[in-house]
Amino acid sequence: MTLADFLSPISLADLGEETTYYNSQFGKIIEKYTDSFPDIFEGDVKPNLAIIGIEEDRAAVNNKGAAKGANQVRRHLYDLYQGDYTVKIVDLGNIKAGATIKDTYVAVKLVMEELIKHDILPILIGGGHDLTYAQYTAYENLEQRVEVAIIDSKFDLDQDYSENTSLNSNTFLNHIILHQPDYLFNLSNIAYQTYLVSKESINMYDKLFFNALRLGAFSGKLDQAEPIIRSADMVSFDISAIRASEAGGNANAGPNGLYGDEACQLARYAGMSDKCSSVGFYEYNPSFDPMGQTAMLISQMIWCFVDGYYSRKKDAPMYPKSNYMIYRTTLEAEDYELVFVKSKKSDRWWMQVPYFGSKSVNERFYLVPCRYEDYQLAVAGEMPDLWWKTHQKLQ
Questions:
Q1: What's the CA gap between 380 and 384, in Å, rounded?
Q2: Distance CA 2, CA 161 (A)
Q3: Contact 170, 160 (CB under 8 A)
């Protein structure tokens, strides 16, 4: 069994009129699976990033047609120019819908798992947002705890969940949270809108010490989302998180949401994260995008992700120590100190959170990305909420 068994080649004719690309355009630079499957695991030709379309929308609630989105995004992505770096990207074509939707999930899982094992980052251009579940299952056999960041206007949770609840774009978070074996360490939802989320869902997030960042809370302060995204192993974008005036190519698009430039910045944060090993862009439906505006925006988001990837500072984990500055502060009400780490390369911050409340000299700790404001809060004598949530999850 090879990756080619799950993937269908790109038909350049399906991308529109025959186009001649300039040498620095993605259409010229990206290696494509058109006739023969590229040899991606050997030598100098090994890519850093792999683009994969997914032709599956059977569980995309109220958004049938999303399976046809990948090629429309490619048309605009290939027109973009690379930045001031050399890209090594391969386009592996599309995963076709299986006989059942579970077959599609398995195909996504196996393809992603193989790529991640070879240190190739998959960029998924999907159908329904339920494919985030398939993206998550790719980490099942990689023997690691996983942190998930989802950019969405709502929580895709079913409050009346039972074992018989079907998996779709409105319920996949139930399946991620309850998946066995359990390797989920943290779940973050970014840019949710309060009137689209039940108070029970927000309370559940609080009880499980998950992160939820409301759209209005970081409007004009987009950097608040950066540490949350930096901590994630996988990032999932629901295009409906972007307002309809910016990205109308979605049957569930709403009047409020992220602006296009904000979505691009979040994508760049994901690309810059040394920890991020997969990203997915879901729910784009070309049936609602006659002018191609949403496809253009998604292609620019992917460009920003790629730009972020080639701007990685490789400053996590903390080695060598000479590249970091250590700050220590003690809370008045506690008998132990909080330790903060700042990278000299990127000026980014982390907090050290000890396992099991250990106070020994050789204590083990978890480095959680944070902001300078968290350090300021600790200096002022207050316990940062992020430290407390992480500490609870480590027990």
A1: 10
A2: 37
A3: no
Give me 15's structure tokens: 């991308």
Task: Kindly state the tokens that stand for 25.
Answer: 């355009």
C-beta of residue 57 within 8 angstroms of C-beta of residue 31 = no
For residue 159, count other CB atoms closer than 10 A to its CB: 10
Summarize pLDDT for 101-120 with one digit per residue, the tens: 999 999 999 999 999 999 99
Give first-to-last CA distance, the chain, whole Å. Answer: 41
Q: What is the pLDDT of residues 292-325, one digit of tens each?
A: 999 999 999 999 999 999 999 998 777 788 899 9
Report which DSSP code applies to 82. Answer: P
Handedness of CA 258, 264, 267, 273 (dihedral sign): negative
| Cα–Cα distance for residue pair 75/69, rounded to 1 Å | 10
How much is the pTM? Answer: 0.95
CA distance 250 to 297: 13
The token pair at 84 is 């001031």
* Beta strand segments in 97-242, E: 121-125, 146-151, 184-192, 211-214, 234-238
Query: Do 266 and 225 meet the contact criterion of CB atoms below 8 Å apart?
Result: yes
Tokens of 44: 């100098």
For residues 126 and 182, give the distance between their C-alpha atoms in angstroms, rounded to a whole number: 25
Determine contact, residues 231/266, Cβ cutoff 8 Å: no
CA atoms of 344 and 99, how far apart (whole Å): 52
**199 CB contacts (<8 Å, ≥6 apart)?**
none
Three-state secondary-structure class, residue 20: coil
Residues 326-351: what's their mean pLDDT?
Answer: 88
Residue written as tokens 């059977």? Answer: 58
